[in-house]
Design a protein that fits this description.
The complex is a heterotetramer, with two copies of chain A (about 325 residues) and two copies of chain B (about 425 residues).
Chain A: H1 7-23, H2 26-35, H3 41-50, H4 68-80, H5 87-93, E1 107-111, E2 121-123, E3 130-135, E4 138-143, E5 148-151, E6 162-167, E7 172-176, H6 177-212, E8 214-215, E9 218-219, H7 224-252, H8 259-285, H9 296-307, H10 313-325
Parallel strand pairs in A: 1-3
Antiparallel strand pairs in A: 2-6, 3-4, 4-7, 5-6, 8-9
Helix pairs in contact in A: 1-4, 4-6, 4-7, 6-7, 6-8, 6-9, 7-8, 8-9, 8-10
Chain B: H1 5-14, H2 18-21, H3 29-52, H4 61-78, H5 96-108, H6 118-131, H7 134-146, E1 151-154, E2 170-174, E3 177-185, E4 195-201, E5 212-218, E6 224-230, E7 236-249, E8 253-254, H8 260-274, H9 277-296, E9 298-299, E10 302-303, H10 308-338, H11 345-368, H12 383-392, H13 403-414
Parallel strand pairs in B: 1-4
Antiparallel strand pairs in B: 2-3, 3-7, 4-5, 5-8, 6-7, 9-10
Helix pairs in contact in B: 3-5, 5-9, 6-7, 6-8, 8-11, 9-10, 9-11, 10-11, 11-12, 11-13
Classes of the chains: A alpha+beta (about 325), B alpha+beta (about 425).
Chain lengths: ~325, ~425, ~325, ~425
């Protein structure tokens, strides 16, 4: 047992963080927002070049050949930099949707479970070549041309444009219920990783603002009220990190324990961390926090979008409860 | 042996009928007469106003000014402007409880909101009434009530937020004018306001609370530059305002030179006291609407309402709102008795109400589920309104004194705990 | 509308507070605890003399003839002083159980709704002359002699001894479902008043300790962490007070609004205040807080007992939700 | 173009098999061999021990001492005492991960808890190992491991709680003895302990952190008076200890004179690091038991389990516990790598775990409902255990550094926020 990153994993993560710092800095985020484009072809190409889409695809098939635990580290950074676009769906599709692995196909997706009973919403509708559709019975692939959607004028997250799906063709069946379950589980784990990254970034932003900003002749971070908000942010991050990394490791070594429960624990802890920390970050920033002058709002909005992607924390907690209570009825 | 009986007897002896003497939540007959009159008028006036005025979009500031001031003018014409303002300035000279009835009835029929008249009616106006010269009052108060003057607030600065008294925007005396240089922030509607309530430093040498003055600023004075700021929900809600040798006549100062901090504190007690009565009514309505929404929204095979955890939280919020509404009535009763602006109780109300409001927002997003990633109405869901409110609610624990500052106030001034060791230069 | 105490109400409350300060000071509470007696005949007599049991009984029938709103003020003080014994049940019984009004009959009670599905527990079993039993169908009176109960060795609250009822005879029917509903509603309102008093006392205790106790060369109440705990305590008290007094006033003038909802709002807010404040009081007291050296623990335990007396806050919130949502199905 | 491929290739080139090189939650083969050995022994030893020893009541301190030390002796005889202590003191000299396996297996079979050996095994012992002289180590460490010495802690004072360094219990040098006067508080098991770890002020003139020394106190020394304190759950858990001219040989000082503060800090890092591994396992079990209980307890026509709000909170707590258990594994892995006591991560764990524990208690009381007003088992409900745990949990956010102090530590030492303006005399 050695539940810390090894040197190579630390280097992998640090290299990808450096990449994001350079390519997805806050000015770029603001530019993409202003341009109303969430998928910039050049940046998409760079993500492909880094191997983000084929991260878990074998080298022989054009991928990087990493494990889930390592892909989790990359998605943590994608969250930290709030990289826009259907990165996760294209990553999930790599290996069975042609062109996904090298980013030449931009793949979006819909988990009908998330939309159950409500409108069917599709993220980044204008950028997609094809769309994966998951439901309890299986996985289908729909050509982007065949799907009709009406643009939603204002999305919650300015960097996640939304379309209301008005016609969803049957598409081609790619797999059955088991494949859908697997994709959802992987998707939930990477969403949790992104939420972890968002929670971390919110903490970093709050802490550096608290060190700089002075009121009453002292940095606001010297006041216990602010100090304790920041301390609680770090606690949530560390708890979420443990859960998210544990889920990644359990994917790679399923004999370690109950994989579904490990993913659910990651969802519960990472969602809570991202939700509370992005809100706390705004509070620490004071008036600036609820303007577009500082990036805090982008993080909060992205975290809210991810909260309903591949299932909610409430659903995850309900499943964990049934596992703990040996209740198989639900 | 000790007994509580005298307390009953004493009252009986006093001859005052029992039900009138005791703590009471019932509006008086006069209040109810006022309510009937107002209700009758609103029934006709609101549809008529709405027929003749298009609701402007959030970004159309000129349109919003026109709309808000037109409604204020309509109220004034009918004798319903400034319910608790003295008649001499065009107000109705009625009691604080009638003011409360006014809010209730306005909310009941969904009448236009105070909007851009907010600062004039709720901050600057009451401050002028309490502190200004007769000439200043006569000049401004009737025009505010008639919707002819829109005001904005120039208190905070980029470097002076929670520590407002550290403000640096300077007003140097030059004959019978002040020359103002510096900047202000969070001035809502700065672009379309006629006047601003401005706090400036008139004595840079004095201790920080002692060198501040309160000025009436004509927003059309040369040298004022305005930079709009975008709020989290996307619309332009406030501005940064820059002053470059802006000349303000000394006669526009309210109160004595360097007495501005005290005067500003008067404003804050208004702000904390009754400023969210309307919002509270709106939130109460929102809770009801959320319950109705939860009963409609299906999630898998059940509705959101079937989720006891969500439903119970709706119940808790509604129960707490009932309590806060009773607290408002207590604050108003106290103000009516003492004829004073609402006191520190406003900080208690602000802490409780703003947190409740944020919990309602979180619950709303949970009920919306995946649909909440869109902010345009789809699938019969009022997403535009709900997501905007949810985002906007994040400002509530910050604006007009953060929750951290409010807790300091409650702890130090109401509970008498020792003051913070703050550097006061 | 004048929603503040009038002079006489303020005097009533203040007189009763003075009485409690003198008769139920903390040394008395400790003595009763040590003696294992929750009902001291002398003190019970003094409570009767004050008119606590006949507070709402007409003067012509030996009572004080006050309204519910005023009785609420008295029960607030009973909570503040954690006066032990079946004061509430005896008060509820006054007017229809002989001897209750002057305290010569000590009346206990059981709301079978509170015990639903669990053991039937009776407070102060050894002190009772008779026991009121409420269920959905009505109200019964059982002679203390006829009821069998086994003493529970350790009660949660040292001042609320408990018996496990092993035989509950049918007793005499005093009224039907409507009377049971009325007693529960009144009981819930006075429980909320006691919880308000407990929440207030916890705040007072925490604030005075925070002013006195020094660490790091300053009173701990000068640290924001402690200061903000205390501020939140006061906020909860003021919110609860508004709800509890409003419920009292609504009893006396039912045309004001929905009485059940007013009582439920009081239950929700006062339970939350008592629960959170008694816990916060312990935290502010540090190590001393979880010993018997300071009275904080008595308050916490009493608050916990009251949380399940005449229905819980969860049940109240569920009812308010149904009222808000117009859901008549539950 | 930048790519992540090298990170895969580099590892392949290194020749180290993939699964051994990476972040790993799997116990090693050596750990698992240890587990099998321990498990086999426990299977036989626990029932044998329980057959020959009656479980003493909470108030029977002498009986508890006898029970706890007998179990420690049994462990020692079998070679399972001090798993990660060096062999020279009778320990097993094994890895921190084997220590974790030990806790897991002990909890799995419900073996007796560390009990009164807590201070010796988890605080004083590790401190002696790190800081004491060879003679002191040889004198005490093996006896602690064998269950022959019970220790207590004399750090806090009535006037020195969170501000421990302000302690005033004085040790005046008199030849080769210190003469101790003053008092200590929160000394668990003080009446039956053999030794105490004692912090005293040896230089009253020095700055407060600089004048403290760490002494080994023989609890049978004349002049010690003990006043028991009752804990919230009702039992005597700790004491106030008074010192009246208590003579302690100078050779019983650990480390240099006036270096006691640094040494005490070593103890705290142990306290915060692994002290609640056993408790965490206990809480994990408690969560399972609560779920089972909730499925049994009926409330009106349904079970507590049918209340989604309660059930979901059980799920949330279990999920967070899973996360905290993973966090423990990370802390242990870091300690194993660095061969250092667990660091500041312990404060993070303490904050999260103690709050979680209190939430579990609240939930337990909610599930129990009305039955929770009794603390003796009735109606098939384990009320004695559950209510005791619920009350006891209130101490967790206070003892061993309040949550407020832990947040200061996290903020100042981990996040680098500016230090509190505290008066340090």
């Amino acid at each position: 047992m050695d539940f810390v990153l090894n040197d190579e994993q630390a280097e992998l993560q640090s290299a990808f963080r450096t990449f994001c710092d350079g390519r997805f800095d806050i000015d770029t985020i603001r530019r993409l927002d202003a341009e109303g484009s969430s998928v910039d072809p050049d940046l998409w190409g760079e993500l492909a070049g880094m191997g983000v889409f084929g991260l878990r695809v074998a080298e022989s098939e054009g991928g990087v050949g990493l494990s889930v635990a390592e892909a989790v580290l990359v998605f943590e950074e994608i969250g930290r930099a709030i990289v826009p676009g259907p990165v996760l769906w294209t990553h999930l599709a790599a290996g069975f949707v042609p062109g996904a692995v090298d980013g030449s196909a931009v793949v979006g997706g819909i988990d009908l479970g998330d939309c159950a009973g409500g409108p069917i919403l599709l993220e980044h509708p204008d950028a997609l070549d094809c769309v994966l559709v998951l439901d309890d019975t299986g996985v289908r692939l729909v050509d982007g041309e065949d799907l009709d959607s009406a643009p939603v004028a204002v999305p919650l997250d300015p960097l996640t444009p939304i379309g209301l799906v008005t016609h969803l063709p049957a598409g081609d069946e790619l797999g059955g219920a088991e494949m859908a379950r697997r994709l959802r589980r992987e998707g939930a784990a990477f969403v949790a990783a992104m939420q972890l990254g968002i929670a971390e970034s919110a903490t970093d932003q709050a802490v550096s603002y608290a060190k700089e900003r002075e009121q009453f002749g002292r940095p606001i971070g010297s006041f216990q009220a602010v100090k304790h908000i920041c301390a609680d942010m770090l606690v949530r991050v560390e708890v979420a990190r443990a859960a998210v990394y544990a889920a990644g490791v359990t994917f790679d070594d399923p004999t370690l324990g109950n994989l579904e429960r490990a993913v659910d624990a990651a969802t519960v802890c990472a969602t809570a961390a991202a939700h509370a920390n992005t809100k706390a970050n705004i509070q620490v920033h004071g008036g600036m926090g609820y303007t577009w002058e500082v990036p805090a709002h982008y993080y909060l909005k992205r975290a809210w979008v991810l909260e309903t992607t591949f299932g909610t924390a409430d659903q995850a907690a309900d499943r964990v409860a049934c596992d703990v209570g040996g209740d198989t009825s639900t | 042996m000790a007994t509580l009986k005298p307390y009953r007897r004493q009252r009986a002896r006093g001859g005052v009928p029992f039900h009138e003497a005791r703590m009471d939540l019932r509006y008086s007959e006069a209040d109810e007469r006022f309510r009937s009159e107002l209700r009758a008028w609103l029934e006709d006036a609101v549809p008529r106003f709405e027929d003749s005025h298009d609701v402007p979009s959030a970004d159309d500031l000129a349109g919003r000014r026109e709309y808000d001031t037109a409604w204020q003018g309509t109220l004034f014409e009918a004798g319903f402007a400034g319910i608790d303002w003295p008649a001499e300035y065009g107000g109705r000279g009625a009691s604080p409880t009638e003011q409360l009835v006014f809010h209730e009835e306005m909310a009941r029929v969904g009448a236009p909101y105070v909007g851009m008249n907010f600062v004039g009616l709720l901050h600057a106006g009451p401050t002028l009434m309490s502190e200004a010269s007769t000439e200043q009052k006569e000049r401004h108060l009737p025009r505010i009530l008639r919707g002819e003057e829109v005001w904005c607030q120039g208190f905070s600065e980029p470097g002076a937020g929670s520590d407002l008294a550290s403000l640096r925007c300077a007003a140097a005396r030059d004959g019978d004018e002040y020359v103002v240089n510096g900047s202000k922030i969070w001035t809502s509607y700065g672009e379309v306001a006629d006047y601003g309530e401005l706090l400036v430093r008139t004595d840079p040498e004095a201790p920080k609370h002692k060198g501040i003055s309160w000025l009436i600023l004509d927003m059309r004075t040369p040298g004022i530059e305005i930079r709009p700021l975008r709020a989290i929900q996307g619309s332009i809600e406030f501005n940064e305002v820059f002053f470059d040798d802006v000349r303000v006549p000394v006669r526009n100062r309210v109160g004595a030179e360097n007495d501005g901090w005290r005067i500003a504190m008067v404003t804050f007690s208004f702000e904390r006291g009754t400023a969210f009565v309307s919002e509270m009514i709106a939130v109460s309505r929102a809770t009801k609407e959320l319950a109705a929404l939860a009963r409609k929204v299906t999630r898998n095979s059940a509705t959101a309402w079937d989720d006891v955890a969500l439903r119970r939280e709706i119940g808790r919020l509604a129960a707490e709102l009932d309590a806060l509404w009773a607290l408002v009535k207590r604050n108003v009763s106290e103000a009516a008795r003492s004829n004073q602006p609402p006191g520190l109780g406003g900080s208690v109300l602000k802490l409780a109400f703003t947190e409740l409001n944020q919990r309602l927002s979180e619950l709303t997003m949970q009920v919306l589920g995946r649909a909440g990633i869109a902010r345009s109405d789809i699938g019969g869901l009022p997403l535009d309104d709900l997501t905007e409110k949810a985002l906007r609610s994040l400002s509530l624990t910050i604006a007009a004194g953060t929750s951290q500052i409010q807790r300091n106030i409650v702890a130090e001034r109401m509970l008498g705990l020792p003051r913070e060791q703050r550097t006061e230069s």
